[in-house]
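Re: beginner question about structure tokens

> Can someone show what the tokenized structure looks like for a real chain? I only ever see the sequence side.

Sure, here's an example I had lying around. Input first:
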Amino acid sequence: MLSILFEPSSIKGVQVKNRFVRSATLEGMATADGRPTQSLKELYFRLAEAEVGLIVTSAALVDGDAYKKRRYVEGRAYDLAMDEDRYVEDWKELIDGVHARGAKIAMQIVHTGRQENPKIRGSSPIAPSAVPVTNKEVVPRAMTVPEIEEMVERFAQSCRRVMEAGFDAVQLHGGHGYLISNFISPYTNVRTDKYGGSTENRARFITEIATRGRDLVGEDYPLMIKMNCDDFIEGGLVKEEAVGVAEIITDAGIDCIEVTGGTVSDSQLRIAVPGINKEEKEAYFQPYAQALKRQGSVPVILVGGLRTPSVIEKMLEDGVCDFVSLSRPLIREPELVRRWKQGSLEKAECISCNKCGLYMFDRPLRCYAEEPLEDA
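And the corresponding structure tokens:
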């Protein structure tokens, strides 16, 4: 039983020992200038020892100039950065340690786009279009074409740094209302130039990153993306068009898609759905993963409310996805995958209370399920 969960599979030639991915999760364990800490190293080593096949880091910033103030706010959980060559050497010991423990590791890279706090940034956030951010009453500034071209280069150079650091793959953060997802969403992208309008034009930002990134990392290095397949906003991206986006970007060189949905500003509870207490509530992004698998040729990673081994096994056996991705369950139970492998098949202990997410931007990552709710 459960043998498929522990069968190896690959992403563009990178062999992963099983089907379990640790989904990118903000740990708040970076230094104030965006470097990995000892605590972060210990966390990744623990996940690797506990049989997680592929670890994806929290998102590292690609635009250090704009985010410098954000990094140095006292008392907050800091972001990783990969916007300068000086960060490359910082990761080698950590990556070697993960590999020695039998796991692979990828770095996720991001620009937060229209959802950046202008008080921290020191100016209006940037986005493809000046569409107001609902919950912050912020109006972002529409990027010029030269700014878009510069941002493509920033993402591509960060891909190069990720490869040079020794990571097994790079993952673009194309979800949750951050900059890449701002471009593909018809709600946040109302441009009338070559970066707006048609599905192909709104996907252009990703295809240019993939094309330029491929120039820098070569043909064999995996370029992955975590991509919104539904914004859960009226007028936003929906499943049918997301399939079209996926076809365009995989043709351009994206090698693997992790399916996600929702935005931090407008539909946050659709990103990490609370109250997953029944099997029928699990795998809530299943229809989107299934649609991508039917239309595409690259591996698909399913995340979202996975708690029960038999449910996960069915997703893989039915061909819904190629890998499964866990976040909240591994916060509460870092040894979960090893427990299942050893035959203790009770569902994950995570109760989907989402307290970990509530505190995520203010303090280092851990499970708060047994503690009273506090002001974050």
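Each token stands for a local structural state, so reading them left to right follows the chain. The mean pLDDT is 93.
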